[in-house]
Write a structure and sequence with these properties.
The protein is α+β, with helices and mostly antiparallel strands. The chain is 41% helix and 21% strand. The chain contains 31 helices and 40 strands. It is globular.
Length: 1121
């Protein structure tokens, strides 16, 4: 077996078939031409449909090619398998009604096994054939394939609806048991199990039947013209001949892998990230080189997905910058021998990729911010709608969203996400024009050779003969229903070269027909689709023809203008301008062309003027029939390909010389007037000019300026509203703007309308600025409107208000002015702009308000961000739709008297934490063990009376600490086992937050202990019971109401009940002390069981004192001894 590079494989294959009489067809563009059923060329046969369906008969019926292909049905699988790619190269040999099975399979065997070519061991080949295809089976055996290597399968039959179909036979290469861990062997082929042992390298489709609805497969009729369609994947063949693990280790990919290694400084060892990047950048390079662009729909959306996926994989390799464009040169150098056009397009491709990747980096950051916002939702669920938005808008794959969600303890509604995805796919499907992917091969049309002479260049009507009538794919003698007809002499132009077909009528004494369409038959005749209006049309009848003159004349003017337009563009922009498509009908002309540069309005007006000069020059239209070589030497412009015959029609109008079969005016002056309506940048250096001529100018250009006029009317209406609003505020504003109402006659008029619109926009901006400035000045000078809504909230003079369309600088002035007039204040203004975005300014002189935190929270809920300091905050967001509710929440927060308990395990930690909080301006007190009961009661009273906000202590289980205002309990070192961190103690500590409807608990720990887990589970259990009870009885939880007087009385009661001993412990013996210790312990356990932790804690302290006394007695006794 020869070890060949990818390029050598391609050359060997193509040369083999060229030697056997095949014509090499250059790879078509990846972008399908005139086929709306597919986004990409996805198979070697796809560009050859016109030959297989009989639309065109090729000069040589033997063809071979290496076709670029893209398939993107399962992008997410790329990188996970050994051979799956989005871009691949397909070698093929094709027979259009020439050779068939014997030649195709014999040549396949020879190319694969001959030492002169690939030199593969025939015993390594395995073949599948259609179960009933005895001819292929026998031929393979005859060629030398072991019968045990031939597998019959019912699935080996190629059929995609009505049309050409037939058996296919696939060739596999056996890589050996190394790639068959379960030792299944040939069973893998027999049961069609996906595997890495038997690699399909070639498929031969034997198209010999005409699949017909309603018939069994064995009853399909034979095709009049049998065809061969084959396909060999270059990447798979390279895998075999280079003897590597996966396609990614072949020379088709390894240069890319090496460059990725250089960028990320990580060696390639089969990582999925490397594979995805290499595959996707290869696809991007080829697709963009062929003229595709990044868009939000269609193939542009596919490319956007590929780039984003590759960019994300780069991040996984620690590449935190845009890098994909730097891989383009590697691909160009690796493939330029087969696809030289890559070299000239490389700069454009790199520029497009670089811009798109930078755009994605910004989008990705926005997506991450959105994800962080979603993680603030207490529901712990990311909805399917939000997951789809992340995927569709920000480029987040669902897998990434799920992964991030799991890290935060969230789940994702994947079922709803799938429904959104399916809806998107269905919409895309509906938006695509649906046609049969391969027309029914029509025996009658393919073999129809009668001459039907086109006389429409000189005549628009004549008497002629009905040559033949085609109905339901069969020739008939007559028809009284819609049908197709051939005329002996035909004046009706068939749609081709971008020019639409003629319309008109046919009439004789027996019938009246309307011509609906005219198409070219496979052998070049013009075939009329007609609607029978009256009577019956009969073969051989004489019939009068009438082409609609007004439509034809308008088409001729527009078509001749296309030629003059192209010439004018080349004269002004350079010879690099060339046609990329055109469409000509009776109303307007559309001309697409390639140009690397910017088109200004001034330049477009010059083009229009130059075309008009050529029209006014009254050039005679000269028609010549020359050989193709003569036409080229004459300088005729065309897209030279095999669609031209040996003799071509050359149309010359002044300096314009083009190959063209269309209809034209006799003299350029007949066009009369030419005008450009619009110029559109289609991306990838492609522009589209839409223009028109003569009587259509007023209509076409009028429609173009209407969109500008409509926008101007909308803006004028806005100015009226501003002036009206100003009047209500006693602000003097005036606005005058005049719009020209003349009917447009040239592109200059289009530009005038555009400039008027821009001018109006600028004037509107000035008006808005003047209005806002005067409104602001009025607001700053008169603060009464704001002062009238001030209110006392929790001892703080508060002004919270919504404004509209104020400048940020003015908002700051208002806030400062208000703050200067009020003591202990909090000012918050939320300014909603016209586009529904919102700005926030907050200022406070109260040490109980944190402006920065308030602004951050507001901004997050408005899809924005913000910050600042404790005394001043500023921020904003893009969504101000819920601003009133958000401000109400701020008021609620200020008036909430929310308090915090923090429990530590050590005195040092409690003291340090208290000191730190005081330093940063937090009102805090430390409840230490030396404080007696009455003093503790006073501290708790002060907390409830809002003297301070945070209470720090070691033991929060004491009586009197069940405070309704507590909304947060923070347990530090929750994972340190002991009395105060046992599961019982934790449950009771957690309960300190249960008296407030907003109460919650945070446990800080390095690990979750059994005690913590038990406490959490028990709290959940109790909550579920309570929630069920509330639901059953219609109870809405609310904060417990408890007066401060109640708290003081409880504390005093506890103080009176402090433990007293009948005898002073100091005078007790060791035995008396040990007995007392037992009694105290029983009292302590009983108090704890009754949840009287205050008493239990005090008894514990007494017990510890008694134990110390016992120890001292023991030590004294030891010394005496």
């Amino acid at each position: 077996m020869k070890k060949l590079t990818g390029n050598q494989i391609i050359k060997t294959y193509l040369d083999f078939f060229i030697e056997r009489g095949h014509t090499k067809i250059e790879s078509a563009s990846l972008i399908p031409q005139d086929d709306p059923t597919i986004l990409w060329i996805n198979a070697g046969v796809t560009p050859l449909k016109k030959y297989f369906d009989g639309t065109i008969v090729p000069k040589n019926r033997r063809l071979t090619s290496c076709q670029k292909c893209i398939r993107t049905g399962d992008i997410e699988e790329v990188g996970k398998t050994a051979r799956h790619h989005t871009f691949f190269q397909m070698l093929g040999n094709f027979s259009i009604g020439d050779y068939f099975r014997n030649e195709a399979l014999t040549w396949a065997y020879e190319l694969l096994t001959s030492p002169k070519y690939f030199d593969i061991d025939k015993d390594k080949l395995y073949i599948t054939v259609y179960t009933n295809d005895k001819d292929s089976y026998n031929l393979w055996v005859k060629l030398g394939i072991d019968p045990s290597h031939i597998i019959k399968l019912d699935s080996n039959f190629w059929e995609i609806g009505p049309g050409p179909s037939g058996p296919d036979t696939e060739i596999f290469y056996d890589r050996g048991e190394k790639y068959d861990k379960e030792k299944k062997g040939i069973e893998l082929l027999q049961k069609e199990i996906e595997n890495d042992r038997y690699i399909e390298i070639w498929n031969n489709v034997l198209s010999q039947y005409n699949a017909t609805e309603g018939l069994k497969r064995e009853d399909y009729p034979e095709l009049p013209s049998k065809n061969i369609d084959t396909g060999m994947g270059v990447e798979r063949m390279a895998l075999i001949l280079q003897d590597v693990e996966t396609n990614y280790e072949t020379d088709l990919f390894m240069p890319i892998m090496k460059e990725i290694e250089n960028i990320c400084h990580i060696p390639y060892m089969g990582q999925v990230e490397f594979k995805v990047i290499a595959d996707h950048i290869r696809t991007l390079t080829f697709a963009l080189s062929d003229g595709a662009t990044f868009e939000n729909v269609g193939r542009g959306y596919v490319l956007r997905r590929l780039l984003r996926r590759a960019s994300r994989m780069g991040k996984k390799l620690n590449i935190n910058r845009d890098f994909l464009s730097s891989l383009v040169d590697v691909i160009v150098n690796n493939y330029k021998e087969i696809y030289p056009e890559l070299v000239g397009n490389s700069s454009k491709v790199k520029e497009l990729i670089e811009k798109e990747e930078l755009l994605f980096q910004k989008t990705l950051l926005s997506g991450e911010k959105r994800l962080e916002e979603l993680f603030k939702d207490n529901s712990k669920i990311i909805s399917g709608k939000e997951a789809f938005r992340l995927y569709d808008t920000y480029g987040f794959p669902i897998e990434l969203t799920i992964e991030a969600a799991e890290e935060k303890g969230f789940t994702v509604d994947t079922e709803t996400f799938k429904s959104y995805m399916n809806a998107q796919k269905e919409l895309a499907r509906k938006n695509r024009k649906v046609q049969s992917s391969m027309n029914l091969q029509n025996d009658a049309l393919i073999n129809y050779k009668k001459e039907s002479k086109f006389v429409g260049y000189d005549k628009l009507g004549l008497e002629t003969e009905v040559l033949d009538i085609l109905k339901d794919d069969k020739f008939v003698d007559s028809s009284s229903e819609d049908c197709y007809i051939f005329l002996k002499e035909n004046p009706f132009y068939a749609e081709s070269g971008g020019q639409v077909a003629d319309s008109g009528f046919l009439k004789n004494d027996n019938c009246k027909l309307e011509v609906l369409d005219v198409i070219k038959a496979p052998n070049g005749q013009h075939l009329l689709q007609v609607k029978v209006l009256e009577g019956t049309v009969t073969k051989g009848d004489k019939i009068l023809t009438h082409v609609l003159k007004e439509k034809r004349t308008a088409i001729m003017k527009n078509h001749s203008s296309v030629h003059l337009l192209q010439k004018s563009l080349q004269e002004l922009l350079g010879d690099s301008v060339h046609q990329a498509g055109s469409k000509v009908d009776e109303e307007c002309l559309r001309f697409d062309f390639n140009y690397h540069g910017r088109l200004s309005d001034e330049l477009i007006m010059k083009v229009e003027e130059l075309v008009q000069e050529k029209i006014d020059a009254a050039y005679e239209t000269k028609i010549e029939y020359l050989s193709l070589d003569e036409a080229k030497r004459k300088g005729a412009m065309a897209l030279f390909s095999d669609k031209y015959g040996s003799i071509v029609r050359v149309v010359t109008i002044g300096q314009s010389i083009e190959l063209c079969a269309g209809t034209h005016v006799k003299n350029s002056k007949d066009i009369k007037k030419f005008a450009i309506a619009s110029v559109e940048n289609k991306g990838a250096d492609t522009y589209r000019v839409t223009a028109t001529t003569d009587k259509n100018i007023s209509k076409v250009l009028g429609e173009e300026v209407t969109k500008y006029n409509d926008e101007m009317l909308r803006l004028l209406d806005k100015t009226k509203k501003i002036v009206s609003s100003a009047k209500k505020l006693n602000i003097d504003l005036t606005f005058n703007f005049n719009i020209a109402n003349d009917a447009p006659t040239s592109y200059k008029d289009i530009v005038t309308n555009k400039e008027e619109l821009e001018s109006l926009r600028e004037e509107l901006k000035k008006l808005e600025k003047e209005y806002n400035q005067k409104k602001s000045e009025k607001s700053v000078s008169d603060l009464s409107a704001f002062l009238s809504i001030k209110e006392e909230i929790n001892g703080i003079t508060t002004i919270i208000s919504i404004t509209n369309d104020y400048e940020i600088s003015v908002l700051k002035q208002i806030v400062s002015a208000l703050s200067n007039q009020l003591d202990n204040n909090f000012i918050l203004l939320a300014n909603v702009n016209e586009d529904n975005s919102v700005n926030f300014i907050a200022k406070s002189t109260s040490n109980r308000i944190d402006c920065s935190t308030i602004i951050k929270n507001l901004a997050i809920h408005c899809s924005g961000n913000g910050g600042g300091s404790k005394s001043f905050g500023q921020g904003g967001g893009t969504d101000g739709s819920n601003i009133a509710n958000l401000l109400a929440e701020v008021k609620k927060e200020i008036s909430g008297h929310h308090k915090v308990l923090v429990t530590t395990l050590t005195k040092r930690m409690a003291e340090d934490l208290t000191d730190y909080m005081r330093e940063v301006g937090i009102r805090v007190k430390y409840l230490h063990s030396d404080i007696d009961t009455l003093e503790r009661a006073e501290i708790i009273r002060d907390l409830r009376l809002d003297v301070f906000d945070v209470l720090v202590g070691i033991n929060l289980l004491r009586e009197g600490l069940d405070i309704p205002e507590i909304t947060l309990v923070a347990i530090l070192d929750a994972d340190k086992e002991g009395f105060l961190r046992s599961h019982t103690s934790l449950i009771q500590t957690i309960g300190r937050a249960a008296r407030n409807q907003d109460g919650h608990v945070i446990m800080y720990a390095d690990t979750i202990t059994d005690s913590m887990r038990m406490a959490i589970d028990e709290t959940k259990r109790r909550r579920q019971i309570q929630e069920a009870y509330n639901k059953e009885h219609g109870i809405t939880p609310k904060t417990i109401e408890k007066s401060v007087r109640d708290l003081i009385s409880i504390s005093k009661k506890v103080a009176k009940e402090e433990i007293e001993f009948k005898k002073d412990p100091e005078s007790m013996s060791r035995e008396e002390l040990e007995k007392l210790i037992k009694d105290v312990k029983k009292q302590m356990d009983r108090a704890a069981a009754d949840l009287n932790f205050e008493a239990a804690a005090e008894l514990r302290d007494k017990m510890l004192d008694l134990r110390r006394m016992v120890e001292e007695i023991k030590q004294d006794s030891g010394k005496k001894g």
